[in-house]
Every structure is written in C-alpha cells, then in structure tokens.
Specification:
4 helices; C-type_lectin-like; IDD; IDD protein; mainly beta; nine-stranded mixed beta sheet; C-type_lectin-like/link_sf; four-stranded antiparallel beta sheet
Length: 255
C-alpha cells in the first residue's frame, strides 16, 4: 500500500536515508532462468533435466533424483526426446561406456513375459500414476543379464559427437538394474532467485536477471505480479556502480 511505501523513505538501516518508490505494474520481461544451476530447461514440458555422472545402480539413481525433487526422466513426446539428445551434457568426468557414446538410466522398465530367444516383453513407466505417454521401441538387451531377472531397467544411449546428436541418433537398452551407470533426472521448472536459490510456490523473490530491485511472486515456476523499486542515484558521487545482486546498493568510483 502507498502508506507503507511512503513510510519507507526515511527508514534506512543505521539512520541512513533510503529513498525509492515502487511501480505497481507487472514487468514486460521474460526470465530465462527457470532451473537451478546445472539443469537444462525445456519450454515444451516446463521441465528441468540434469545428468548425474556418479555411476549408480538403477535404485540408487531413483533415490538421488528424489533427493532433488526429481525423478528418473520419462518423455511425453518425440520432441522432448529430441531436445534431450541435442544437449551438450557436461560429461568430462568418468563415464561408464565408450567416450563417443553416453548411456543414462531413465524412468522405464522392461518386463519380460516370455524367455524365448527373443525375450518377449513390454516397456512400462517405472512409477504408476505418471502422465507420460511415450514408450520406447524394442530394446537392445544388455550383456550383464541374469536368467532370474524378469524386470530390466532402461538406459538411453546417445552420442557425444555433435553431428550424431543433432540427427537424433540413439538406442534403447534393457539392462540389469544393478549395473552402474550415469542417469538423467527430470523435475518441474521452478523459480530461481538472483542468488540461485530455489523458491517455493507462492513466495516472493527477486528473479535472476538484470534488475535486483524486482520482487515477484512464484507461481507455477514463473515469476508473476512483479513490483519494481526505483533507486535515486547516490548523493555526492559523480561516478558509481550498481550492485548487480542487491537493490539500491552502489559503489562510489570517485577518487
């Protein structure tokens, strides 16, 4: 309210005079950061994706994803899969397959229904209640299979070379779930503040961008109802620099 804004003008910290006013209009700005650092954003599903390189079996990978409010990735359509295949994942560290090929645990399981020469079966989404509709084609079977296993876990293989990546070449493997592999987590897009903290639904925050004086409400992973504070230039200082992460904070550059 206006009364509160007016009363702020002379209530700076330590007796300093802090002078600013608010503009109660939504800012016509698009914010590019909707995922935490290290995650890739895809607008089509409003989701974030991250590859974890620490080789884990399927069940440990599930728990690692859950600890960051994510799950092993499943896909809703070919477009989403093509986005994943085209990404330049950070894979310089140790991986568990050939350097030109990358395999990740993803959120599907292959249920074997008939153990003949072709290992008949079908893919299922690993967690019931998922809204995903895309299921993989017939898999390539891994080499570490046990005759006792009736459920195998999905690995998506993509290629490191850019030309192969952008052509969308890939394979699906049904592998022993206790093999160790890198894995791909997926989570809903989220609000990320200017200091790279994740913001919960309904809370106020300053989004990443060029304006540390912007305060928005987090709604469905988007900053909405934004309010901007405009600062007066520092008094008695000809040359100054704005702090990129704190509102109305300046550094005087005068001698």
């Amino acid at each position: 309210g206006k009364e509160n804004v007016d009363s702020w003008h002379n209530r700076g910290r330590g007796g300093e005079t802090t002078r600013f006013h608010t503009v109660n209009v939504a800012q016509p700005v698009r914010f590019s950061r909707k995922c935490p650092t290290g995650w890739h954003h895809y607008e089509g599903t409003a989701s974030c994706y991250r590859v974890y390189l620490n080789g884990e079996n399927y069940w440990d990978a599930v728990q690692t994803c859950q600890r960051v409010n994510a799950s092993l990735a499943t896909f809703t359509a070919d477009q989403e899969l093509r986005f994943i295949l085209a990404q330049e994942w950070d894979l310089e560290e140790k991986t568990f397959v050939r350097k030109d090929q990358r395999r990740f645990w993803v959120g599907y399981q292959y249920v074997i229904t008939n153990r003949n020469h072709s290992l008949e079966g079908h893919w299922e989404v690993a967690y019931k209640g998922s809204s995903e509709v895309f299921l993989p084609p017939d898999p390539i079977f891994g080499t570490a299979m046990s005759e006792k296993e009736n459920v195998l876990c999905a690995q998506l293989q993509c290629f490191h070379f850019p030309t192969l990546r952008h052509h969308g070449l890939h394979s699906w493997y049904a592998e022993n779930c206790y093999e160790k592999s890198s894995f791909l987590c997926k989570r809903s897009q989220t609000c990320v503040d200017i200091k790279d903290n994740i913001v919960d639904e309904g809370y106020y925050f300053t989004p990443k961008g060029n304006d540390p004086c912007l305060s928005c409400t987090c709604h469905n992973g988007e900053p909405e109802m934004c309010v901007a504070a405009l600062c007066e230039r520092p008094q008695g200082c000809q040359q100054y620099r704005k702090d990129p992460k704190e509102c109305c904070k300046f550094t005087c550059l005068d001698p």
